[in-house]
Automatic annotation (TrEMBL):
Protein known as: Gfo/Idh/MocA family oxidoreductase
Domain of life from the UniProt record: Bacteria
Residue ranges occupied by any Gfo/Idh/MocA-like oxidoreductase C-terminal domain in the UniProt entry: 136-331
Family per record: Belongs to the Gfo/Idh/MocA family.
InterPro entries: Gfo/Idh/MocA-like_OxRdtase_C (IPR004104), Gfo/Idh/MocA-like_OxRdtase_N (IPR000683), Gfo/Idh/MocA_Oxidoreductases (IPR051450), NAD(P)-bd_dom_sf (IPR036291)
Gfo/Idh/MocA-like oxidoreductase N-terminal domain residues: 5-122
Species this chain originates from: Ktedonosporobacter rubrisoli
């Protein structure tokens, strides 16, 4: 069985997870990793039995590396991705596609000209709860959609860790924006958002954003995103999705995943879905995402999440940020324009 040679670029929380999973996938050989922190890269490479490359250019020049995961900070996605496209690699780019619409349009153009797989890591599409929601909607089992409500609240420690390099709309909101667009199969027409900044004022970013979206289908959506949950919160995330149709409704709740642990005087709800280990093997939704990327390469399938789809989510996130900043309703592209970034 031919193994796909993989490189991982960026070894923050997500990059480390990608490297750990690739090291265990049977169809993959983790050829090397790169991070600007060379000491960190060397330590991880030694543990995983792979090579720490001295530069991004060196990693991309390695002929045995056929594909890369790009897990750099949001604001650095564009440069790394362009270099990987120039090197002819298959690419799995962590969400968001980019934080700038001009850069995003250029990545869509270049990705669609490339013969290689270009996938954006919108991990919720590989969560069985969201995937089954999509199936129910696509099969018409709850009728025409009337409204969507999505909530994603995260820990203050995560916002502090990112030190203002990205926004709550891009870091968290883009997850649920992508899901809404995936479910609706129509574009967002208008956005109105309001934000508040208190605990994170020193970083120049919003604590919380509330947004109302109107879709070209006539449906409406509400989005709540925040990253100021206290460290003592029982789970690392409080995420929910409500889908209301003319003939039914669907509810997703990720706050309590069915396991509660009380220890050291504190109750916790551990993550059992996104990335955990079972008998020393990594399992979960992120593993499914990476496995789909590899399968697309091996079998010549279309990208599971295209650059064009990911651009649409960024477009809405940028509009949310603009509306929160100006206090005005922001009108987005029509359906026709949204198909032509």
């Amino acid at each position: 069985m031919k193994q796909i040679g993989i490189g991982v670029i960026g070894l923050g929380e997500m990059g480390l997870s990608h490297a750990n999973i690739y090291a265990q996938l049977p169809d993959v050989r983790l050829i090397g990793i790169y991070d600007i922190n060379s000491a960190l890269a060397s330590t991880i490479a030694q543990r995983l039995g792979t090579q720490a490359f001295p530069s991004l250019e060196a990693l991309l020049a390695a002929p045995e590396i056929e594909a890369v995961s790009i897990c750099t900070p949001d604001n650095l996605h564009y440069e790394s991705t362009v270099q990987a496209l120039n090197a002819g690699k298959h690419i799995l780019l962590e969400k968001p596609l980019t934080v700038d619409l001009t850069e995003g349009r250029e990545l869509v153009r270049r990705a669609e000209q490339s013969p290689q797989v270009f996938m954006v890591g919108h991990v919720l599409r590989f969560d069985p709860r969201y995937y089954l929601t999509r199936q129910e909607v696509a099969e018409g089992n709850i009728g025409d959609l009337i409204h969507l409500y999505a909530r994603r609240n995260n820990l203050l420690t995560n916002a502090r860790r990112l030190r203002g390099r990205t926004s709550v709309a891009m870091f968290l909101g883009v997850h649920d924006i992508d899901v809404m667009l995936w479910l609706m199969e129509s574009s967002v027409e208008t956005v109105y958002a309001s934000a508040t900044s208190n605990l994170l004022k020193d970083l120049g970013v919003a604590d919380t954003i509330m947004a109302t979206l109107r879709f070209t289908s006539g449906a409406v959506g509400a989005l709540e995103v925040s990253w100021v949950l206290p460290e003592q919160f029982v789970s690392g995330i409080d995420a929910r999705l409500e889908v209301m149709g003319t003939q039914g409704a669907i509810y997703v709740d990720i706050h309590n995943q069915g396991l509660r642990v009380f220890k050291h005087g504190q109750l916790t709800y551990p993550d059992i879905s996104y990335g955990t280990q079972l008998n020393g093997r990594f399992i979960g939704i992120l593993k499914e995402e990476l496995a789909e990327f590899i399968l697309a390469i091996k079998e010549g399938r279309p990208s599971p999440v295209s650059a064009r789809e990911a651009y649409r989510a960024v477009e809405v996130a940028v509009a949310i940020e603009e509306s929160a900043r100006t206090g005005e309703v922001v009108r987005l592209a029509t359906e026709k324009r949204a198909q032509q970034p």
